[in-house]
Amino acid sequence: MADDRDFKGRFVKGNSGGGRSIGATNKAKLFEKLTAEHASEIVASILEDAKNGDGAARKMFMDRYFPVSAMQTQQLEEQMAELREILEAQHESR
To answer: How far apart are CA 64 and CA 30, in angstroms?
Structure first.
């Protein structure tokens, strides 16, 4: 074992256990910085992919910018089913 641990593998007294050096950037802050710098490009790319039929991009965009609860989703699906029935009935009557 390393000199900084005891026979049970625990850190010996006086050893802080290492960690990040002062001023080190963690991944979350780095991601936040990169995202902030390129946010408009990222959103534009996702929108373009969604417009071109990319289902994953469309779902990501809708989930982030127009969040809908599960209950609202169920209500919307029921309303859409009713609207489809009305439209089909109108189409058949012509």
So the answer is: 21
Amino acid at 27: K
Strand partners, 11: 5
Return per-residue pLDDT of the chain as tens, 94 residues.
Answer: 457 788 888 888 877 666 666 667 778 888 888 888 888 898 899 999 999 999 999 988 888 888 877 778 888 889 999 999 999 999 888 7
For residue 5, list its beta bridge partners: 11
C-alpha to C-alpha distance for 83 and 89, rounded to whole angstroms: 10
CA distance from start to end of the chain: 84
pTM above 0.70, yes or no: no
Tell me the domain boundaries of the chain.
27-93
